[in-house]
Amino acid sequence: MRSFINRKGRGRIPGGALLRLLRAASLLILLLAGAAGASPPVRGGIVPHHDIAADMIEEFYRRAGSEEARRVWIFSPDHFRRAKTFAPFCPDDWQTPFRTMKSDGEASRILEKLSVSGPDGALFQKEHGITVHIPYIAEHFPNATVVPMTVSS
To answer: Regarding beta strands 145-151 and 71-77, do their DSSP bridges make them parallel or antiparallel, or are they unpaired?
Structure first.
């Protein structure tokens, strides 16, 4: 376990699981960004997914938001261990107070061809690691589609 300190105090995160998640996420983003000729450049961040950190989440999206972005990737651990593949994605659109957040069809078609991924919309209905972020993405990335994925541990 690795420890960290933030303004709320000390905490611990599981190093192995976090590193696997970050490696998998980085590989998929770079693979698909390269295939699509990423423009604007790829940017990223690690953001909490619990409502208690709403101020921190809002600040991140306020700073990172972009009208130029065309695709936003969001990765979450599979909290309930219901995934049928290593890295399932959600092919469904999301209704938010700001707009309908469209799923990225191009990314979905590419991901479906990978043996480690596959569509699984039902998995995402209760996955708070994704659902907390969708409204922020819809608001702060108004011209982007979304690619929500979970990663199994």
So the answer is: parallel
